[in-house]
Amino acid sequence: MLTIGYVLLSLPAALLLIGPDRRDRNSWAPTEPSPKRTLARSLLEGLRPGAFLFGPDFRHIARIGWRFLTLVVLLAAFTALLLEHTWWTVSCAAVLIVLLSTRLNVGDHVITAVARSQEREKLLAFLEERLRWMRAHCDKVVIIAHSQGGFLAHQLMARDGGRNQSKVIRLVGVGSGLKPIWLLQQIKRPLVCAVAWMLPVASLCLAWGASPLIEPSNSEIAASMLMQVKVLVSSMAVPLGAQSPQFSTDMLHGVVESMERMQSGLLLVGDMSWERWVAMTVSATLSLTCGLIIRFRIRPNAKSIFALPPTKGTKQLKWEEYSSHHDMVGRMLLPTLPQGVEREAAPVLGHPLGDHTKYFDSNGLLPRRLAAGLLTDIESSSRSFGAKRWMETVARYERALRKQHDRRRCFQGVLMLWVASATLLPRIAHGATIVEAVVGNWQPLVVATLVLSAVFTWRGRRSHRELVAMLDSELRGEPRPTPPVRIVVPDGRIATTMALAIGAVFAFFGALGLSLLSKFQPAWNVGSPGAPMLAAMILAILAGAAGSGYRVRRRWVAGAGFLACLPALTSEGPPSSSVPAWTTVPGGTLAAVVLVATAIALIGLTRARPVSLPDAPPSPSAVPSQRRAASDLAAVGPDRE
Fold first, then answer.
1. Are 507 and 557 contacting, i.e. CB atoms less than 8 angstroms apart?
2. Within 13 Å of residue 546, how many CA atoms lie on the same side as its CB?
3. Region at 214 (left for phi over 0; alpha for psi -120 to 50; beta for the rest)
4. Is residue 432 scored above 80 in pLDDT?
5. What does the pLDDT read at residue 307?
6. 289 to each of 194, 217, 474, 506, how far by Cα in Å?
7. Helix or strand holding residue 528 (H, E)
């Protein structure tokens, strides 16, 4: 009960799950010297569609949106199962009670570090006693602290002006809970607690008040979207020979009317109710109040909160913090640590829970990097173990795994975007809000999320093992095999990705139009109406792969283009002696548009330049042998290093 009560009181801390991480450093720490220049640069980049879609601001918005969508899907699934299925409610309650009554109650561990001062002091006293024993028996001490241990180790090193730093040469935090535990401690302060609750309330008020401006669920925007879909479907499915002047005129009038209705739907300021204006005013007031409190009451007290006192000896303590981008404990961007403490993200798997527990896996790359740090610590002016070359080798494979990880996660995100769009757009077009559409379609979204997560996690674990085995072979001095990772450079992706995406959209609407045409005009003998739909799926997947940096085979693109042309090759339109036969074939316009898109994509694939990773070592003898390093280490025993 204490754990549940503390969780409810600290509920705003759940926003940390969808908060910014270190990849969003560009958005939170502007590079321009003045705020005005930063705002002007952002506006100029926003006016260019290409720069906006591929810029850091768009990636930041996409990451936050994806996390929010995932959180809404999980909450909707849990709520639906809890309310509709008694067995699910009973099972969840039983599992929760069992977990909270055992040592697996991680929440109670966090409460101990955050709120129970006496128990935390007992832990620190125990650690200090063990550290005192190490100082008596060792010349140098390295502390490696994981998760909550990172918070305790930092507290230990900061005690009484750094009295415990004697002989401690390195403090390594891995997935450290230093930032989240510190934030949970601050929530106990009344002023911080008020800000933590006011910000979510302000966000909800803003979302509800401004929903007519940002939601595509109001009648005018929904009607214009449906009109544009109708025009696009008609133009893709109806043969050219059947498109009379009146048909073309009606189509153009429909496009113009849909654009006018969309413009009127976007300018709803005068039609908004007073309740929504009040909600937006409350949101602005709360946000301004929170900003002033943070600026003048909280931020001045938070400067240099994590800075360690200087070491009294000759050699200063070196502090390093490692985390992955997806570890929900260690990935937090704010509050900031002292300059130079945070290292580049450790490539693990790309999973919020798995990353936190896989740092020290036998196939993990972090132990190899820590081994390089060990070699650096025991080197001296008269004895070298090749630590620098070892570090350079590990760094090359880290870059390769990081690029591979980013490519894999981007591909997964694009695929989830296609699935979410196909699932949510029908409901949105019928008047539902985005949140209502997500809640109403939680079943397919949950299935897609779990399946894609499982597939990409399995593939990531497999490729991670392959690259680490290759690294070990190179560290042992064995011949270097062919690099397994080949990533297309960003300059060769944009044209191909856009062409494939446009081809997928037109193939989808063309397949929809052909299906309707075969239903209402059976005399036209429309053949293979499902082939363009299959082509749309293939082109969408290939667009995501190309945009993420994967090598796309040209025969796959050509095959998808051929599928989109099947209706035009197998269908028979209405006979007419006054027009050519090819103009009476259903799907002819669809085939022409998709063929142009695939042709552009094929040209882009021909010019794409893949880069092999990891890059080649500087020289054949640059990597020290593990056996030679081990023998050198064995000879160091008498030196007590």
1. no
2. 31
3. alpha
4. no
5. 83
6. 10, 31, 57, 49
7. none
pLDDT digits (tens, 9 = 90+) for 335-345: 778 888 888 88
Output the 3-class SS for 205-256: HHHHHCHHHHCCCCHHHHHHHHHHHHHHHHHHHCCHHHCCHHHHHHHHHHHH
Q: What is the pLDDT of residue 640?
A: 44
Integer Cα distance of 275 and 205 in angstroms = 10
**What pLDDT, in 10s, does the model give residues 527-569?**
777 888 888 899 999 998 888 888 888 899 999 888 888 887 7
Amino acid letter for position 338: P
pLDDT band per the 50, 70, 90 thresholds, residue 579: low
Distance (Å) of CA 91 to CA 85, 104, 413, 426: 10, 18, 32, 34
d(CA 112, CA 110): 5
CA distance 525 to 585: 10
Average pLDDT (51-66) is: 64
Q: What's the rounded mean pLDDT across residues 489-493? A: 77
Given a contact cutoff of 8 angstroms between Cβ atoms, the answer to whether 198 and 245 are in contact is: no
Structure tokens at 376: 């650096």
- The torsion region of residue 574 among left (phi > 0), alpha (psi -120 to 50) and beta comes to beta
Share of the chain above pLDDT 70, in %: 75
Alpha-carbon distance 478 to 94, whole Å? 54
* Rounded distance between C-alpha atoms, residue 413 and residue 58, angstroms: 13
Q: What phi, psi does 146 have (nearest 5°)?
A: -110, 140
**Structure tokens belonging to residue 525:** 């003998």
Across the chain, mean pLDDT equals 77
Instruction: For residues 175 and 172, give the distance between their C-alpha atoms in angstroms, rounded to a whole number.
Output: 10
Q: At 168, phi and psi to the nearest 5? A: -85, 110
Q: What is the pLDDT of residue 622?
A: 47
